[in-house]
Amino acid sequence: AELIMGSVKEQEAIRKLMAFLQEWDSAHKAARSHILDNFIRSNNGKTEPELELEFSQGASLFLARLAAWLRMTYMYSTCINKLLKSIGVFLSAASGRRYIIEFLEIGGVLMLLEILGLNHLKEEDKRESVKLLQLIANTGRKYKELICESYGVQSLTELLASCTSAEAREEVQILLGSLGRGNPKYQNQVYSGLLAVLPCSSPHAQQLALQTLCDMQEAIGEAPPALLTPLLSALGSAHPDVRYEASRLLPALAARRARPAVLSRLVALLTPPGRSAGARVSTSVLAKESAEVAEDLIQLKVVDGLMVAVGNLDYAPSQRNASVSLEYFVRMYPFVEEHVRKAVGHTLFQFFKDCPETWYTKLDPAQAEELASNLMDSPKDMAKMQSAE
Question: Coiled-coil stretches, from where to where (predicted)?
Fold first, then answer.
């Protein structure tokens, strides 16, 4: 009797599944949209065994239909958001790797990546697509490789640079971060893609790209020379978040072969017409990294550059940052202290010692002019003083 009951129940469940699939197959757009609403509402967060129970072991049949409808309609944006969310119910199901494999077998990755480049689609649709790609990437290394092989990095970095929604940008950053980790074959491609985002016009995108580059730096090792120009440009950004992320990357450049180029470019940025507040902050960040870097900077006349910057009355943030950097060199190197005392005179130097952050506010135009012009003849003078120490 139990066997009969079991098979009656089974047949009933299969009949229910067939009826559901038939209803889907014959439904028009509005009815399908309604079916998707119900499906998302009642199945979100379910595991693979729970979904199979719900669909009498035939959940894959519905996933295949969803994927087929996506393939037919994503160019025309029919219900695309609900469709992607429904596919997401399968791809995010615990122990549901088989659903990911089934979706990939019918070209899922290429569809999702193509969605990112379609101008007529809303950014929230693209964001849903990125979330599905995250689920795929998090399944393992060969899945990350598949996304990269399908020109995924290019699609993602273009979206990061061009989209207007902060939420979409953040999802893209999460995915690029995932593709940049545990993916040795393609990590350099991800790094280069992020570098290409830096010149874009969105400060938020620049900040996210710099953050991800920073996270990847240790795995990459030697910082490529291509990092130098966009990084120095980011240091001069008007946006504090961008400058902060850029300054976190600087030590990676200064610690390696690129150091001479980086330091001399930084010092050059200190004096007008460069108005890079970031360069001032960076010189002190780098100097604190190592005594060797600090001494290289002194040889490159960083102290003079900082004093010129303090005297630049047109740009107060710059003056403040330069003062703070200068204070570090004065505190660490007695010969620098001597040099600065000579250049600014006793009274101003006292103000400087008392409060480096605000002493520039005590400068009158004549003193500022004096400061900007009364500099040592050459780095050799500095070297002489250093050896006399």
Answer: none
**SS3 for 159?**
helix
- DSSP class of 208: H
**Residue 161 and residue 158: Cα distance in Å, rounded?**
5
Task: Provide the 3-class DSSP secondary structure of residue 272.
Answer: coil
pLDDT at 333: 87
Largest CA-CA distance found in the chain, in angstroms, rounded: 106
Q: How far apart are the first and last CA of the chain?
A: 102
Q: What distance lies between CA 268 and its chain's CA centroid?
A: 27
- Cα 165 to its chain centre, rounded Å, is 15
**Closest-CA residue to 341 (of 320, 309, 313, 329):** 329
pLDDT digits (tens, 9 = 90+) for 144-200: 999 999 999 999 999 999 999 999 999 999 999 999 999 999 999 999 999 999 999
d(CA 306, CA 322): 5
Distance from chain centroid for Cα 4? 60
Distance CA 28, CA 290 (A): 68
The pTM score is 0.77
Task: Fill in the DSSP letter of residue 186.
Answer: T
* Residue 333: DSSP 8-state: -
Of how many residues is the chain composed?
Answer: 389
Residue with the two structure tokens 């060797």: 292
- C-alpha–C-alpha distance, residues 211 and 8, integer Å: 59
The amino acid at residue 24 is W
C-alpha 59/C-alpha 103 separation (Å) is 12
Tokens representing 40 are 């998302």
3-state DSSP call for residue 13?
Answer: helix
In the chain, the amino acid numbered 279 is A
Read off φ and ψ for residue 44, nearest 5 degrees. -60, 130
Helix, strand, coil percentages in the chain from 3-state DSSP, rounded to 5: 75, 0, 25
pLDDT digits (tens, 9 = 90+) for 230-263: 888 888 788 989 988 988 887 777 666 667 777 7
Q: Return the closest-CA partner of residue 379 out of 313, 281, 312, 305.
A: 305
Distance CA 175, CA 284 (A): 33
DSSP letters of 97-151?
Answer: HHHHHHHHHTTHHHHHHHHHT-TTS-HHHHHHHHHHHHHHHTT-HHHHHHHHHTT
| Residue whose token pair is 């559901």 | 20
φ, ψ (nearest 5 deg) of residue 34 = -65, -40
